Amino acid sequence: MMDDPYEFTEALGKETIDYAETQTEKFREKYGDASPELRKLVGDYYNTKRIIEVKTAKGHTLVTYLENGKYRLSLDGEDIHSTSNIISWTSCDDECSRIAFFETPGSDRGLVRIMSGKDVVEEIPGRISSVLFTDGSFYLVKTYIDEEPPDGGEINSHRVLRDGKIVFGTGLKSDDFITMHRFGNRIAVDVGDWKKSETYTGDVEDPSTWKKIRKSDCPAKTVAIEGEDAYFLEMRDNGVIKKGNDVLIASEKPIEDCLRVSGGFLVLHLDDAKIEPALYDLSGRLKKTFPLNEPMGMQSADSDGSTAAVILHSFGVAYSLNECNGEEFKAVEENRVMDLDVKEKWVKSTGADIHYFLMDRNGESDKILAYGYGGFNISMTPRFSPLFCALLDQGVAVAFTNLRGGGEYGENWHKAGTRENKQNVFDDFISVIETLRQNGSRVVAWGASNGGLLVSSIVTQRPDLLNGAVIGNPVIDMMRFHRMSVGRFWVSEYGDPDNVEDAAYLMKYSPYHNVRNLHYPKTLIYSRLNDDRVHPAHAIKFHMKMSEVNPDAYLRINPEGGHIGIAPSEMVSETSDIAGFVLNCLESEDQ
Fold first, then answer.
1. CB–CB of 433/466 below 8 Å?
2. Which of 175, 181, 214, 222 has the highest count of CB atoms within 10 angstroms of its CB?
3. Res 33: pLDDT
């Protein structure tokens, strides 16, 4: 391992925090004073009514709204809880008489609240990823992040607990994630990572009966258990739906999700990164498709086994709440924020044709924000973004790209952008940006998390292409990512820096190690000090190194929040600062 002069930042000591505060103040002095009109515009879009998650249970619907700076829970149309923190997930029993939700200021640590009726009856702190109710108690999945589990094992291992005692998961490693589903008096526990999975089933009240019934070399989800029949969605190829070991549906179009509804399955396909709902019977025969009127992506979906609730959204639609009862798929509530001209485009890259959406409000603009991600089998489908909306209102077009590494075209598409193939993702984004610039357009690139790796790679490989870059909560140091926070879980995606062969290709593109004495575009790197998923040192040390050669490199570190997000009021401030920076880059003539 080579010497790293800025490795000290990973300890987040006083010198590092002072640096982050000083540089953040410098950024705000120059770019952070967004006009009151722009800040109000961002605030209006951020505060518009959105649905974050939906749960269904025997005719009841539990909805998580975000509106006017508050997350609120609504049960059958009646508000039961409101908070300025983030509600990242919810759970309920079959009657929605007991509800659990996870509240956090933005990190993966937070507080589970258990409600009975409208009253909070229990609070449990920690990193907890789910709760499943039994008839008289509940299970929760806890991550041991500060110490080894009491039953032995590695730090960051996951366990199922009931009444404070571990009842499942002994022997599982730290990269084995756990998801629980209840089907009547049966439980399904899916265990796995991004490459493999197992399923255990048994009596929901008796963990000693939970036995392994399935093992595969791909991620999977249990869709239903009915009598002796178990149905699974395996994320291999484009998605395979099975009854036991028998294949019911081997899809030609990628599957985002599968839900049990009356008479069969509601399958949410992807067609060029757009959601396409379809209904299949229990034998796997296609019964009908439900064409949508515009490109949409999925925000959340759930089913009680009979009726499914699906939250869709799009570039101009904050949410569309849809129901499917096995016969029809219909929208029952919607918040349409703006009408847009959304075009679908294609461009040739090295070894692939790349699809992207290009949208604007007032004809074709020569000022463009290009957004990309390209990783972890995550599909970039149309979505609502207050930043996009604010920039579109300012005459900026938005290019929303579907790069290799994502899940838009199945597992092979994903693998074509991982490990030694990661350069394909950067080439794809470069091809799109080159096309956007052919007619003299100015382009700013934006990406966050793995998308921050994407944009920082474009900055270091092709700085001539950009008029500005916005790099959010990024993974940047590819030789030490596995030593920071939970980075070791990404080795299957990126490669292992401790392996000589992997280190060779990681070093070749690692943005942190490829900063040279060149003319770079204006660059904003932002992160949050309490990000316990992607360590803020990635952003800080990249800024330190970039500042050696680029006087227009800026750092914005929020002292609050984490990777999941920050408080709504702070999110408006962060988004406004980004919008102001993007507009400055697109309006300047110095790049």
1. yes
2. 222
3. 67
Q: Which residues contact 228 (CB under 8 A, 6 or more apart)?
A: none
- Residue 388, Cα to own-chain centre: how many angstroms? 17
In degrees rounded to 5, what are phi and psi of residue 82?
A: -145, 145
Q: Taking CA 54 as the corner, what is the angle to CA 327 and CA 69, rounded to the nearest 5 degrees?
A: 140
- Interaxial angle between packed helices 422-437 and 450-461, expressed in degrees from 0 to 180 and rounded to the nearest 10: 60
How much is the pLDDT for 355? Answer: 98
Listing DSSP states for 381-432 in one string gives: -----HHHHHHHHTT-EEEEEE-TTSSTT-HHHHHTTSGGGHHHHHHHHHHH
Helices then strands, each counted (H, E), the chain: 10, 35
How do residues 99-111 score in pLDDT, each as one tens digit? 999 999 998 999 9
Residue whose tokens read 């009547």: 184
For tokens 């080579």, the residue is 2
Alpha-carbon dihedral of residues 505, 508, 512, 517, nearest 10 degrees?
Answer: 180
208 given a catalytic annotation: no
The yes-or-no answer on residue 449 being catalytic is yes
Q: Which residue in 88, 130, 449, 527 is the catalytic one?
A: 449
pLDDT score recorded for residue 578: 96
Q: Is 521 exposed, middle or buried (0-12, 13-18, 19+ CB in 10 A)?
A: buried
How do residues 285-342 score in pLDDT, each as one tens digit? 999 999 999 999 999 999 999 999 999 999 999 999 999 999 999 999 999 999 999 9
